[in-house]
Amino acid sequence: MVLQDCDESKESLQKGLPVVSFSIGDSAEFMYGDQRDVEKAEKVILETGDVLRFGGESRLVFHGVSTIIPSSAPKVLLRHTHLRPGRLNLTFRQF
To answer: Organism's domain of life (predicted)?
Structure first.
């Protein structure tokens, strides 16, 4: 699914305030592009510990996770944190 952030205040969007996203656990294929067309989207793998930040002109880019790669989280992370298998994403934005 490819989405575009539209729920924030008009002021926040006009200022291009950034979205900051932290990935924990399983890796995921993240897609982004200036169109809603999945076939034309750029793709990048987000792994545990990765931080993604987009703002300014790229603030309204279409984006989303297309695939989660099962069992790709570092075993040491699961062992020491007692996290369940899967992916945890923390996303911060200013409304």
So the answer is: Eukaryota
80: part of which helix (H) or strand (E)? helix 75-81
Look up residue 46 and give its DSSP letter.
E
Range 30-51 average pLDDT: 90
Residue 5 has pLDDT above 70, yes or no: no
- Alpha carbons 55 and 8: distance in angstroms, whole number: 13
Quick one: tokens of 17? 């305030």
pTM assigned to the model: 0.81
Token pair belonging to 36:
């809603």
Task: Name the CATH superfamily, with its identifier, for domain 10-85.
Answer: Alpha-ketoglutarate-dependent dioxygenase AlkB-like (2.60.120.590)
Q: Which of 32, 40, 37, 39 has the alpha carbon at shortest distance from 60?
A: 32
- Per-residue pLDDT tens over the stretch 42-75: 999 999 999 999 888 787 788 889 999 999 999 9
